[in-house]
Amino acid sequence: MTMPAFRRRPRPQIYISFQGNDLRKGFVSHVVKALKDARVNVFVDNDHDQWERRGPHHHDDHLFVRRIHNSKLALVIFSDQYAESQQCLNELTTIHERVAEGKLMVIPIFYKVNIEEVNNLEGRFGKCFDEMVRTQGRQNHQLTHHIVGCLRSIARKPSFTSGYYSNDSDLVEAIIQGIKKKIPYISAKQTIGEEVSAELLSASVVAALCFYFIPISVFPDLGFFISPRWYLAVMLLFVVRHSLRSIQR
Questions:
Q1: What's this model's pTM, rounded to 2 decimal places?
Q2: SS3 81
Q3: pLDDT tens, 102-158?
Q4: Where in the chain are the domains?
Q5: Which PROSITE patterns has this protein been placed in (predicted)?
Q6: Burial letters for 224-247: b for 16+ Cβ neighbours within 10 Å, e otherwise?
Q7: What is the C-alpha radius of gyration for the chain, rounded to an integer number of angstroms?
């Protein structure tokens, strides 16, 4: 008999928009780990550079749109290099559209860049934006104005700023707590002990159902379901499934 699976709420997905390999290997990797520990599906585009080399009309360019549409919340990590990427600005406009439609939540994070620099397109952030516009040859002022509007709209949302925290660990912890307020049903990663307890509870429920409701004519050895053999079989199955999940991770 197959053990019934208790229906669980689907894990929420979070999309992270950022620019820069240093950020990916450092701060973003810490955010991703913390989110995965909180049992959240995370999408991080690890192929920004290849996207930029392919150009804006490659057939895979809309993959990020589907990822954003499948997400419940987006983290937009503004850094001084963010605006130099056309890909990031495309992500930003898509995120803004979904937020305006009420289909996505967003949390902006200002990492080693001032909010004023982003809002006013000043400093290195502003220079990167101007260079991106010049490089892409965007003479369409209406389109550029739309991008700037999306950028400022997102930047005005409740946010986290790295300058207010003594280190990245404190910033990451604050971000996770902020996400939990928006998605309150995400929880900490289960320990092995908690998983074992859940398995044993499920086994007990199934054993009781089998013992009282399966006719003896169908399964003569009903005592099996209240014997140590039943729980040993359940735990062996748990070990196998846990090992397979570990390999997949």
A1: 0.69
A2: coil
A3: 999 999 999 999 999 999 999 999 999 998 888 776 556 777 889 999 999 999 999
A4: 13-182, 192-248
A5: TIR
A6: ebeeeebbeebeeebeeeeeeeee
A7: 24
